[in-house]
């Protein structure tokens, strides 16, 4: 009987302990549930706040884009008026024989617009990033010249393919319709050749692309001298994505390949075309350097470097340039 009494007493103690443990577990469960409920409410409030901030940011972005678009329309209108004035002067000279006939007279740049293209090159690592630049068609078979630095990705690697856009309307941005592949580079001169390979939508390509004459000056022709007019054509980033035409003079030289000019050269114009007062192709706009007091100088790559690039490409004898393998 004594043993049985002890067992009963012990069992009551165990049951008491179990009840205490159950109450403690229940309290813990209630506490954790309450904490989780409060945390969920806090997260919902934070998400709601983030959503409201996102909506506000998007609305502000839309307002900014509207202002930018309005500014672009004005820039396009102003550019259209400027080129129209130049075209009227040229028409007067050609048809009536009136107007200025000096070496500073504008030449018919509108006849070359469709041979100066816009390039869009995607970054090798981040496909959301792209770079815009200019190029010049130098062969009706689809060959174009641009700057080597236009083909450099953010990590310094070479971008092998770029989109190419043409336009014959100076008031409209080029339509990117073709894919071009880098085929030759000339790092020392900062030049590259790209060959148009295909239409973006698989359509048939034209038998002949528009191109400009890039031959060097013949013997006996006057070389460029200090003070001679220089005209720059391309698609600068500040030019509302439309064809832009600026004027300056030869300001000097740097080494064998570089010509200094007062003509305006901005980001995006690199790889475009430079002409003399007669409309002859004289080189590739490549960079701009701005002074502390607001002045600026542009740099052109002389046509002699372009000639070397083309000569080695056509002959297959690569001395200072590098032929790129097809991938």
SSE string, helices as H and strands as E = HEEEEEEEEEEEEHE
CATH topology (fold) name of the largest domain: Thrombin, subunit H
Q: Note the overall shape.
A: elongated
Helix content: 25-40%
What's the mean pLDDT score?
75
Summarize the structure.
The protein is an alpha+beta fold.
Secondary structure elements and their pairing?
Elements lengths: L1 H95 L19 E7 L7 E10 L3 E4 L14 E6 L8 E12 L4 E9 L29 E6 L9 E11 L3 E4 L11 E3 L5 E10 L5 E7 H13 L6 E2 L4
Antiparallel strand pairs: 1-2, 1-4, 2-3, 3-6, 4-5, 5-6, 5-13, 7-8, 7-10, 8-9, 9-12, 10-11, 11-12
Descriptive notes:
The chain is an alpha+beta fold and 327 residues long. The chain has 3 domains: 1-101; 109-213, Trypsin-like serine proteases (Thrombin, subunit H, Beta Barrel), CATH 2.40.10.10; 229-311, Beta Barrel (Thrombin, subunit H). 33% of the residues lie in helices and 28% in strands. It has 2 helices and 13 strands. The chain has helices at residues 2-96, 303-315; strands spanning 116-122, 130-139, 143-146, 161-166, 175-186, 191-199, 229-234, 244-254, 258-261, 273-275, 281-290, 296-302, 322-323. The chain has a 6-stranded antiparallel barrel with strand order 1-2-3-6-5-4. The chain has a 6-stranded antiparallel beta barrel with strand order 7-8-9-12-11-10. A hairpin with a 3-residue loop joins strand 8 (244-254) and strand 9. The longest helix has 95 residues, at 2-96. The chain is elongated and about 110 Å long.
